Amino acid sequence: MPKMKSRRRALKSYKVTASGKIKRRKAFRSHILTSKTTKRKRHLRKATLVSETEAYKVKRFLLV
């Protein structure tokens, strides 16, 4: 049987809140930031919740 792949990246990418919801960072804030407005970058700074449809998959992936 092959080795199991670890899920360390997922554990670093998502956080589970006290109520069981899953938080994630927003995309489009890693490079080419000079072409994006300050307002856009500011809004991308905040974390957001994973949608309910995706939360089921992420919870299974995180083994929560």
Care to give the gist of this entry?
The chain has 64 residues and is of the alpha+beta class.
Can you walk me through this structure?
The chain is 39% helix and 11% strand. The two termini are 25 Å apart. It is built from 3 helices and 3 strands, in the order αββαβα. The protein is of the alpha+beta class and 64 residues long. It has a 3-stranded antiparallel beta sheet.
Q: For this entry, what is the oligomeric state of its chains? A: single chain
Secondary structural class = alpha+beta
Instruction: List unreliable stretches of 5+ residues.
Output: none
> Biggest sheet, open or closed, and with what strands and sense?
3 strands, antiparallel
Number of DSSP strand runs: 3
**What level of helicity do the residues show?**
25-40%
Query: End-to-end span in angstroms?
Result: 25 Å
Number of domains: 1
Determine the mean pLDDT: 92
